[in-house]
Amino acid sequence: MMVGVIIGGFLFYVTAEAASSKLAQLLGKKGIPYELQHVPMFLVLFLTTGVIYKQSMLAPMAEMVLKFLLLYSAVGVVFLLFLALVRQLHYQSYIFLLNWLKRE
Question: CA 79, CA 88: separation in Å to the nearest integer?
Answer without folding.
Answer: 14
